[in-house]
Write a structure and sequence with these properties.
There is one protein chain. The protein has one helix at about 1-55. The chain is mainly α and about 55 residues long. It has one domain (about 1-55). The radius of gyration is 24 Å and the shape is rod-shaped. It contains 1 helix and no strands. Keywords: Membrane, Transmembrane, Transmembrane helix.
Length: about 55
């Protein structure tokens, strides 16, 4: 009886993991992409400012 309940718990846990796993990975990728975009924007801004100041 206890084993059955444990098996059900493990199955539910695995199902949750299979749903949440790719989602968290996607969110992580998205945040990584966003930080890269921000960094690129910041660098572009800095180079534009440097270019304007050098004139």
């Amino acid at each position: 009886m206890i084993f059955g309940r444990l098996f059900l718990f493990l199955l539910t846990g695995l199902r949750l993991l299979s749903i949440l796993g790719p989602l968290t990975f996607f969110c992580y990728l998205l945040s990584d992409l966003m930080s890269l975009m921000c960094l690129r924007f910041y660098l572009t801004l800095c180079s534009i400012l440097a270019f304007l100041c050098s004139k």
